[in-house]
Amino acid sequence: MDFALNKEQLMIQQMVREFAQNEIEPIVAEYEAEGRFPEEIIKRLGEIGILGMTVPKELGGGGCDTVSYTCAIEEISRACASTGIAVSVNNSLACFPLLTFGTDEQKAEFLTPIANGSSLGAFGLTEPSAGSDAAMQQTVAVRDGDDYVINGIKHFITNATVAEVYIVFAMEDKSKGTRGITTFILKKGDPGFTFGTIEDKLGIRASIQAELVFEDCRIPASRMLGQSGKGFKIAMMTLDVGRIGVASQALGIAQASLDRSIQFANEREQFGKPIGRLGAIQEAVANMATDIEAARMLVRYAAWCKDMGKPFSKEAAMAKLFASETAMASATKAIQIHGGYGYIKDYPVERYFRDAKITEIYEGTSEIQRLVIALNVLSGK
Amino acid sequence: MNIVVLIKQVPDTTDVKIDPRTGTLIREGVPSIINPDDKHALEEGLRIREKFGGTVTVLSMGPPQAEDALMEARAMGADTTVLVSDRAFAGSDTLATSYALARSVLTTGEWDIVLGGRQAIDGDTAQIGPQTAELLGVPQVTYCIEIEIAEDGRSVTAKRALEDGYEVIETKLPALFTVIKDINEPRYPSIRGIVNVCRDCDVQTWNAKDIGASKKMIGLDGSPTQVARTFAPEPKGEGLILEGPPEQTTKELVKHLREKNVVRVR
Fold it and tell me: How far is CA A44 from CA A41, A58, A188, B99, B185, in A?
């Protein structure tokens, strides 16, 4: 058993850490305050291969493993959770299904540009009436000769307006239930495909979540991803990978909360000494540090399982559940350690608190993670 | 254009501790990095290659662990990396080191331009560049903030940053240039670059014999410098330096003043 990162993983972690600290950290407060998407940062991350990290090199990606990917998302999110999710969605929810289920032609046309940083991808599963109950797809796809015609609305879609490629799920045959759902590849500019409301959110304010609106949107049948009726399976497999990304994002927020708490506890003096010498603060910091280390082990283990070709659905759910709840608890504690300073916007911990909450919700709420874990455990897996 | 870049692996800290008993640097627990100025030299080399074609060869003299710095250089885009390492080099001062580096440059074969950082953050001597140029018998331009190579790839106009202004120098290649950090913004290694170097690593190692070094010129024998004593000066009271754009540092400053209860902001 070896818990150490290998040379390649360490170099990737170090490089992304430097990028995040030097290029992202100094501007994040401004972007978050204005709710402005960090387009330039994403472009630069694309140039160094962060947008298609695990995609093979010959398809335009970086060719690294999933463990390295978790290190990168953690480091990016430690500086900016909004950038973290934009990158995670592209890697996990757009590149992964194209790589796994796409034809060679589809990979060349849609995967390579989003893996090599030329453009971004998005994932359209969630609908107003289909959240945790993702099978309740109201968006419909009707075959018409060599085309499909899509009608419906997707909402809360990360990267919506800034993406070029969209993995979209639609009901093809309602009578078949989840087996009636099919996956399609949409492009920005497809006739009948527009954007609706852009959400105004509590946290991750520099990232974009918006509606995808399809009104008699006609696309060639060659845009079907995988087989007809296999959409739900594709969605569930993709979300397993996505959860590793969100877990890494949560880990980054938790680590940032700890970083700032340590700094503050050592600098802030009350009762004639740094507050880090007070038992109450020590207990808080010790608990945070321990939970974060445990979360990191779960995240890397889930990634390792994926890299080894082992099943990782349960492991990804556990990592996502524990890391996101750790992020929320750590950010809450970080504010408490900062006292009044934690509550004002001069310090970043109030942002970590607002950002942490979403990690317990998107790509499967904590309740859904527990459901996934329970179903796995109860069936002996 | 065959470009040779000299880099050094140094401890990553601006407040290196010195062992009060031995007077040497305490390197334990301090991560190692490519010397910052040298990273700018490497970036300049990569940019020259992008414009004129050719190869970038990176040389580093140091212990086996300096291979990490060379791997990073490779991940950034260097074509060839060579670690110049031999027990016989132990105890080399800047003259003996410059000799070994000059021999190494000659060993690379045909070369047009040698680039290095102004100075290393651990030793701060700024002697390696000039001495290496002298030993190679080529012109040197130090403290470069701009290096413009003419279309014909032969003559170079370089701008030097001096304390009281700039100096523009024209010279012919081959020549050696040392650069300062304002010359460029070094690129980050790419994921692909890191994966390539880690899975297919070919850092070569040259020993004293490989570079045809004379024994008298290297190690303690080749080092006229005698270090009488090194010591850490008495530390001043702890201060706080805020860095960044004025809008940001002002905010930070106000934050600190508020925290210390020096001012109140209404």
Answer: 5, 20, 22, 40, 13
Report yes or no: A268 at the B interface, CB cutoff 8 Å: yes
Tokens of B4: 């040779």
A341 contacts B190? CB cut-off 8 A: no
The one-letter amino acid at A74: E
> B3-7, B171-175, B211-215: lowest mean pLDDT where?
B211-215
**More confident of the two residues A335 and B265:** A335
Q: Any idea which residue has 């040392």 for tokens?
A: B178
With CA atoms as reference, the chain A residue closest to B248 would be A26
- Which 3 state secondary structure label does DSSP give B33? strand
ipTM (interface pTM): 0.93
Chain B partners of A61 at a C-beta cutoff of 8 Å? 192
Between the CA atoms of A365, A370, A375 and A380, what dihedral angle is there, to the nearest 10 degrees? 140
Task: Please give the positions of A annotated as active site.
Answer: 363
Which stretches of chain B sit within 8 Å of chain A by CB?
71-72, 75, 187-192, 194-195, 198-199, 244, 248, 251, 255, 259
- Chain B contact present for A181, CB below 8 A: no
What's the fold here for domain A232-378?
Answer: Butyryl-CoA Dehydrogenase, subunit A; domain 3 (1.20.140)
Given an 8 Å threshold on Cβ–Cβ distance, is A63 in contact with B72? no
**What pLDDT, in 10s, does the model give residues A222-268?**
999 999 999 999 999 999 999 999 999 999 999 999 999 999 999 99
| Separation between Cα atoms, residue A380 and residue B15, nearest integer Å | 55
Q: Is A40 in the B-facing interface, judged by CB distances under 8 Å?
A: no
Average pLDDT score over chain A = 97
- Chain B nearest C-alpha distance from A255 (Å): 20
* Domain locations along chain A: 7-120, 122-230, 232-378
Q: Which domains does chain B have, with CATH numbers?
A: 2-217 (3.40.50.620), 236-266 (no CATH)
The answer to whether B72 and A11 are in contact (CB under 8 A) is yes
Chain B residues near residue A47 by CB distance under 8 angstroms: 190
Q: Which two tokens stand for residue A263?
A: 């700094």
Q: Which CATH superfamily is domain A122-230 in?
A: Butyryl-CoA Dehydrogenase, subunit A, domain 2 (2.40.110.10)
Angstroms from B164 CA to nearest CA on chain A: 30
Q: How far apart are CA B113 and CA A191, in angstroms?
A: 56
User: Which residues, in sequence order, are CB contacts of B133 under 8 Å at separation 6+?
Assistant: B114, B139, B140, B175, B176
For A7-120, CATH number? 1.10.540.10
Whole-number Å distance between alpha carbons of A99 and A85? 20
Nearest to B244 among A11, A26, A53 (CB): A26
Q: What is the pTM of this model?
A: 0.90
Tokens representing A109 are 């046309």
CA dist list (Å): A16 to A51, A75, A78: 12, 6, 11
Dihedral sign, Cα of residue A137, residue A140, residue A143, residue A146 = negative
Can you tell me whether residue A62 is helix, strand or coil?
Answer: coil
pLDDT tens string B122-136: 878 889 999 999 999
- Find the CB nearest B198 among A8, A53, A72: A8
The residues, ordered by sequence, that sit 6+ positions from A266 with a Cβ below 8 Å of its Cβ are A274, A276
How many inter-chain contacts (A to B, CB under 8 Å) are there?
Answer: 53
Question: Three-class SS of residue A88?
Answer: helix
Is the CB of A15 less than 8 angstroms away from the CB of B194?
Answer: yes
